[in-house]
């Protein structure tokens, strides 16, 4: 599911406490008896988020997720959701599952959960039909109305700050708390951080390179240049990993109310410390070269050092472009290839 450069998101029944979906012993349709509150697992637990607080009374046995990659938190902890978001970006075989999710389901010997298509709107009735005990949406673009409708189905773990602005560690922490697995969530984050550090060690030249994450692909209007702020996990992940942050990104990310920021091309001097640009683009290298040629010929944008020197890493439309928006399962699958792509563009 590729999110465009604007905030875009778009029930209704009471929830039923039902089945624990551990892949090794059950399927999304099984319905064992509901469980009591479990103080040892941290229940009841209350989670604070952008819309207030959510209390989850007992260990959830049926887990639904919406938004980008929230389903990967339970999967990484060997819990198979009863329903989750359908992948509509980076899906290499059209089955609605990214390859690292397919790999994990196969490892757990689990069939695919119900897939929610959120392209036009959140499918509230379809979500309700899965009878979840909790809905994980710590990284999402829920509106207040969305949240209120979903809360009539089950307790909702919403994002802590701005829509689509949750860091990967925060997504893992919040979603894991909603599952009663906070300790396991902390361990997962530590493991991922170690994997990222090891991958970056293979390309030390990236450590201080100041990186701008944008989207030039198919862009006809060159009067502006937009970029993701560090609240967005794409840019935030790179900063946390140890890559450099351009001054304009650092300044505009402070207390920003949205994850996408735009500047006039006339303010091009603001980007003169950018060493490397990451951009969504085409799967066709020739098309990406045409885009770069156009940018280099532009009287303003062509003066940005990264554009002038051709230090632009174009992401296509395949799985690696989805892995650039990092998640618990995509990091082990693709972070080394991702950093290798960036290092190649920097040389």
From TrEMBL:
SUPFAM superfamilies with a match to the protein in the record: Helical backbone' metal receptor
Domain of life assignment: Bacteria
The keyword Signal belongs to this UniProt entry's keyword annotation: yes
Keyword NADP among record annotations: no
Sorted UniProt keywords: Signal, Transport
InterPro entries found in the cross-reference section: ABC_transptr_periplasmic_BD, Bact_iron-sidero_bind
Domain (Fe/B12 periplasmic-binding): residue spans on this chain: 62-346
Signal sequence annotation: 1-24
Compartment annotation: Cell envelope
UniProt main location, coarse: other
Transmembrane segments: none
Family label: Belongs to the bacterial solute-binding protein 8 family.
Designated name of the protein: Iron-siderophore ABC transporter substrate-binding protein
Species name: Corynebacterium nasicanis
């Amino acid at each position: 599911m590729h999110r465009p450069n604007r905030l875009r998101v778009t029930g209704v029944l009471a929830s039923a406490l039902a089945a624990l979906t551990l892949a090794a012993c059950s399927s999304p349709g099984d319905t064992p008896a509901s469980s009591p509150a479990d103080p040892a697992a941290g229940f009841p637990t209350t989670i604070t988020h952008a819309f207030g607080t959510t209390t989850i009374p007992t260990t959830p046995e049926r887990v639904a997720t919406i938004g980008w990659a929230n389903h990967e938190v339970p999967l990484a902890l060997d819990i198979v959701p009863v329903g989750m978001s359908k992948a509509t970006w980076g899906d290499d075989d059209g089955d609605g599952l990214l390859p690292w999710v397919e790999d994990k389901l196969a490892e757990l010997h689990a069939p695919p959960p119900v897939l929610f298509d959120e392209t036009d709107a959140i499918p509230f009735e379809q979500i309700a039909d899965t009878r979840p005990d909790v809905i994980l949406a710590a990284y999402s673009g829920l509106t207040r109305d969305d949240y209120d409708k979903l809360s009539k189905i089950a307790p909702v773990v919403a994002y802590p700050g701005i829509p689509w602005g949750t860091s990967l560690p925060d997504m893992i922490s919040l979603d894991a708390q909603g599952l009663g697995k906070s300790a396991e969530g902390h361990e997962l984050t530590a493991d991922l951080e170690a994997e990222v550090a090891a991958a970056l060690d293979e390309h030390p030249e990236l450590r201080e390179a100041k990186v701008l994450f944008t989207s030039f692909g198919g862009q006809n209007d060159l009067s502006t240049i937009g970029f993701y702020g560090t609240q967005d996990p794409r840019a935030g992940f790179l900063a946390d990993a140890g890559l450099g942050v351009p001054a304009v990104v650092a300044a505009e990310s402070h207390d920003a109310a949205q994850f996408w920021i735009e500047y006039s091309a006339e303010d091009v001097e603001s980007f003169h410390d950018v060493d490397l640009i990451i951009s969504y683009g085409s799967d066709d290298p020739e098309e990406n070269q045409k885009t770069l040629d156009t940018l280099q010929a532009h009287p303003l944008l062509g003066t940005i050092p990264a554009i002038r020197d051709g230090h632009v890493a174009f992401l296509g439309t395949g799985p690696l472009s989805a892995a650039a928006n990092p998640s618990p399962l995509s990091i082990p699958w693709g972070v080394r290839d991702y950093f290798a792509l960036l290092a190649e563009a920097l040389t």
